[in-house]
Amino acid sequence: EHEKELEDINLYYVHNEQLFVNLANWHEAWAEYREFQRQASDPDRFKRRGYSAVQEEKQRKHLEFSLKKLQDTVQQLGKDYEQEFGHLFLVEGVPVQDFFNNEKENYSQEKELEKARKQLARGQTPTMSHAQATTKRLEMSAKTPGRQQTNLGKEGEIKISTPFRPASGIHKR
């Protein structure tokens, strides 16, 4: 009984080998694309020795092209399977098209989650509050002890005295 089951599975695999091989290749390319996207979002990549934006763009285009090609091939083979056997080819329990859509949706949700996590972490870092900044500005704008301005004498005349020179009158114009 087990031998018959094994023989049926082997026959099923041999009959649909191209579909399984292309699906496995798509999984590998998808993992490579996700890793590439992770590295491409690293801001320090510009500082790495030997970094090339042109090379990065070429690799991105190549990965996107190969993913699209493999996806189209798997979808076509899935349609052929459906026509031949009368039922859908399922990947992880869902039809092929839904599988690809789910994978891409999960990936975009992961990216959004990571983005939100980074924003939350950035928002919780110790930053200077508005009150602290205002206090600091007031402290910085305080007069130097050795220099004092006084408004003595006629209107429009300012007396300045410093430790190094005697008070003199400066007229505003």
Name of the top-level CATH class of the largest domain:
Mainly Alpha
- Coarse shape: elongated
**Rg calc:** 35 Å
The beta-strand count equals: 5
Q: List the domain count as a whole number.
A: 2
Helix content: 55-70%
Taken as a percent bin, the fraction of beta residues is: 5-15%
Q: What class do helices, strands and sheet pairing give?
A: mainly alpha
First-to-last CA distance? 110 Å
Task: Look at the structure and give the mean pLDDT.
Answer: 80
Biased composition (Basic and acidic residues): 107-117
Biased composition (Polar residues): 122-135
Pfam family, one: MAP65_ASE1
GO molecular function, one term: microtubule binding
Protein architecture, described:
By secondary structure, the protein is mainly alpha-helical. It has 2 domains: 122 residues, Up-down Bundle (Methane Monooxygenase Hydroxylase, Chain G, domain 1); 29 residues, no CATH class. 64% of the residues lie in helices and 9% in strands. The protein has a 3-stranded antiparallel beta sheet, with no helix packed on it. The protein has a two-stranded antiparallel ribbon with strand order 1-2. The longest helix has 33 residues. The relative contact order is 0.06.
